[in-house]
Amino acid sequence: MYWRDDPQAIVDEATLRLYYKGRSNSNNLTLGAYRLLAPWVDSQATWTQRLTGANWVVPGLGSGSDYLANGSTEDVLGDGGSWVEIDVTEMAQAWVDNPSQNYGLLLRETSAAGYVIYDFCSERGVSPCTAAQTPQLAVWYR
After folding, report:
1. How many CB atoms lie within 10 A of CB 3?
2. With contact defined as beta carbons under 8 Å apart, do 94 and 37 qualify?
3. pLDDT tens, position by position, for the chain (142 residues)?
4. Using CA atoms, how far apart are residues 82 and 77, in angstroms rounded to an integer?
5. Phi-psi bin for 43: left (phi > 0), alpha (psi -120 to 50), beta?
6. Which of 139, 43, 51, 60 is closest to 95 using CA atoms?
7. Which residue, 17, 16, 20, 18, is CA-closest to 79?
8. CA 39, CA 27: separation in Å to the nearest integer?
9. Is there a contact between 61 and 45 (Cβ–Cβ < 8 Å)?
10. How far does Cα 42 stand from its chain's mean position?
11. Residues 6 or more apart from 55 whose CB is under 8 A from it?
12. pTM above 0.85, yes or no
């Protein structure tokens, strides 16, 4: 993607795809994607710090302070072995409009019907996931 070459680019559609492997029981889950509002470093981030010497506004990340309160949600259906797609078009457009404020996104449960563990493949393709099952971001723009 080369939208940074065109600051007037319009994102027509952006979809985050996550491969859903399975769940621990039949309880339902709604997954949300939220735009992060501050820089962070994955190897330094903890419950209280987003990077060494810089705290999250709220420990564990606060809605409206560490991540945008309104996000995109998707119900995770079935018993696994399928893709979950979350519309992140507004987020992608915000990243195009302000590339220096692209801090990524946060995935979190927005609701669940009781205790349940959902299993998704990661970007590292941890076994038994394959490289083809890693998260994908598809962006259509003009």
Report:
1. 18
2. no
3. 444 556 679 999 999 999 999 999 999 999 999 999 999 999 999 999 999 999 999 999 999 999 999 999 999 999 999 999 999 999 999 999 999 999 999 999 998 888 888 999 988 766 789 889 999 999 999 9
4. 9
5. alpha
6. 139
7. 20
8. 34
9. no
10. 14
11. 48, 49
12. yes
| DSSP code per residue over 67-112 | B-S--EEEEE-SSSSEEEEEE-HHHHHHHHH-GGG---EEEEEEEE
If you ran DSSP here, which 8-state letter would residue 5 be given? Answer: G
What whole-number distance in Å separates Cα of residue 27 and Cα of residue 98?
39
Which residue, chain included where needed, has tokens 């996550």? 18
Q: Which residue has the tokens 């696994």?
A: 80
